[in-house]
Amino acid sequence: MGNDTAVRVSGLRKRYGDTAAVDGIDLEIACGEVFALLGPNGAGKTTTVEILEGFRRRDGGTAEVLGEDPGSAGRLWRARIGIVLQFASVGPELTVRETIAHFAAFYPRPRDPDEVIELVGLAEKAGARISTLSGGQARRVDVALGIVGRPELLFLDEPTTGFDPQARRQFWELIRQLADGGVTVVLTTHYLEEAEALAGRLAVLAGGRVVAIGEPSAIGGAGRRTRVGWDTPAGRRSVQTATPTQAVGDLARQIGGEIPGLTVTRPTLEDTYLELIGDRR
Ligand code: ATP
């Protein structure tokens, strides 16, 4: 594996009894990418990420993360990875600063805890006990703990669930800053707009498989059929076409001028996403 590949997965499988949670996933994520795993509940996102983090054994396939097999990689490898789990829990009695300083001490090259506190927007709460934080603030502590070790690769499992819209925007800004600093980010999310806002590429998972992969715009638009609509005396008409320019030209010639009520709509990422996961439900 070249040094510019952060994650490479081939034929990955994991079963729980009769459930194929991960059912043959192939993925390649380059260093420096922000990559999103998108999918409905039970799609296999968390299981996939936990295998990549070395927290879960796979039943089949190969996985390489920063050049090592996460199933057998050691402490040095672990220190190069940052993890923000879906449900993190840290002791309620310590303050924000104490908690972050405590975890910083586990790493060979930690960031300065106060710098991390600033970065995640918790400067005003640095002296507050964890038990007094709001849900969104506690989530920022989780993120702080994920980055305090100066990871090369950061896994974020549904990082903004429970955030208000403003907190979500601020969090996106933080992820962009980390990505600009060269950190590879793999995030799972239910939020399409989050994947669209952050990820250079995304994979849509459903039923333990990758059902689409690519840039958000490619998944949302290009190659998908565009709908051309117009008004007729008998009511509204529409056609779906892969060549909308030609369809509009043909229509203009037929009508002999302006087309009444002309609309040309590309499917959004959301339309495509719902179609993709709907097919598998
Ligand atoms: P969500 O968006 O709800 O977090 P997900 O995409 O992360 O979902 P997973 O948590 O990976 O999905 O679950 C995939 C499938 O595996 C689900 O059907 C789930 O019920 C099952 N599963 C996950 N963990 C276990 C477990 N420890 N024991 C048994 N089944 C499990």
Strand content of the residues, in percent? 25-35%
The tally of helices reads: 10
Poorly predicted runs of 5 or more residues = none
- Secondary-structure element order, as H and E? EEEHEHEHHHEHEHEEHEEHEH
Give the spatial strand order of the biggest sheet: 5-6-7-3-8-9
Instruction: Work out the number of β strands.
Output: 12
Look at the helices and sheets and give the structural class: alpha/beta
Distance between the termini: 35 Å
Radius of gyration: 23 Å
Q: Give the mean pLDDT.
A: 90
Largest sheet geometry: 6 strands, mixed
Helix share, percent: 25-40%
Q: Are any ligands bound, and if so which?
A: adenosine-5'-triphosphate
Shape: globular
Would you write up a description of this structure?
By secondary structure, the chain is α/β, with parallel strands linked by helices. The protein contains 10 helices and 12 strands. α3 packs across α4. The site of adenosine-5'-triphosphate (ATP) has 11 residues, from β2 and α1.
Please give a handful of descriptors for the protein shown.
281 residues, alpha/beta, six-stranded mixed sheet, 12 strands, binds adenosine-5'-triphosphate
Ordered list of secondary-structure elements with their pairings:
Elements: E1 5-16, E2 19-30, E3 34-38, H1 45-53, E4 60-65, H2 75-79, E5 81-84, H3 96-104, H4 113-119, H5 135-147, E6 153-157, H6 165-180, E7 184-189, H7 192-198, E8 201-206, E9 209-214, H8 216-220, E10 226-232, E11 235-241, H9 244-255, E12 263-265, H10 269-280
Parallel strand pairs: 3-7, 3-8, 5-6, 6-7
Antiparallel strand pairs: 1-2, 1-4, 8-9, 10-11, 10-12
Helix pairs in contact: 3-4
